[in-house]
Amino acid sequence: MRSLIDIIDFTTEELDALIRTAVDIDADPAKYAECCKGKKIATLFYEPSTRTRLSFEAAMLELGGSVIGFSGAGNSSASKGESVADTAKVISCYADIIAMRHNLEGAPLVAALNASIPVINAGDGSHCHPTQTLADLLTIYREKGRLDHLTVGYCGDLKYGRTVHSLINALSRYEGIETVLISPDELKLPDYVKKDVLEKKGLPYEETTDFEAALPKLDILYMTRVQRERFDDLAVYERVKDSFILTQEKLDLAKPDTAVLHPLPRVNEIAVGIDEDPRACYFKQVYNGKLMRMALILKLLGEAQEDRANVRKAEIQAVCRTKAGRTCPNPKCICHTEQELPAYFRNLGGVDRCLWCDSEM
Ligand code: ASP
Predict the structure, then answer these.
(1) What is the fold, at CATH topology level, of the domain defined by 130-282?
(2) Residues in the ligand 1 pocket, defined by CB under 6 Å
(3) Whole-structure pTM value
């Protein structure tokens, strides 16, 4: 069964096709209004969300389908100790497609391996957020007319900001992308993105703390909030939380057509006055996110008609190994709580990484 767990599950041709569908939906929504009649999406949100959950629900409703689900682990059988694997099997009996958000990294992959319906990763811990990336790609495409030959700056929390990880991964597959990583030292991009994506592909990037010097170079400025909920030590959060704030004065250092993106929610990292600046694109991103989720639901439900059962399991078994005695060092990885989950790892660029969360083993 085809799912979307990591943005690299889709080829660039598939991403481009999703963009075309989303643009067409926007131009002629009536054409799509009954495409999912009789179908249900289950939104299984173990962690807070406003945009992602409601945009999945709005997307399915606008396609003529319906919605079931829960928001908050406390409202589900997870609070009684049910595993993600069992929940995925149960929900497969009620719905046609699942969108799952989980605080544990790798949980949507576990669900995909156990569900008999497609699973969409709606954000797993600090790991990935592929459908936010779909929203980001459509926004960049609409603002710039292309997804290649761009200088993209990421500013804020590059360590815990899962949307950054997925977007860097997606853009790394387009020609001529230059990356500027602007963060405090404590919040630098993790190695599974820096080494395994940027360095492995030989893509140019720089790491800096000098926001003002970076701004004039950027075609895209991707701001993120510092992810308070991911810090083990809140004193560190307090120290870094106001490291980079985009004010009008700073934005005036950027090009007249730099597009400013932010996955939202904003805390204080973009001054509210900037919302009126034509370069501010973050509310357009929200709208684009709904269109891309509509295109994604159509694609996955369409493919679910085909017999693709167990394709992912076979793919994983082909590339992964397990070794007794090796465990993932990431305490937030799903492998520590899910029963009997093998300590799968794969070798990426000479480094053994956990299959579920990408930590170095
Ligand atoms: N909404 C995004 C996410 O779920 C960004 C954020 O929470 O800061 O990752």
Answers:
(1) Rossmann fold (3.40.50)
(2) 52, 123, 129, 132, 162-163, 224-225, 227, 263-264
(3) 0.91
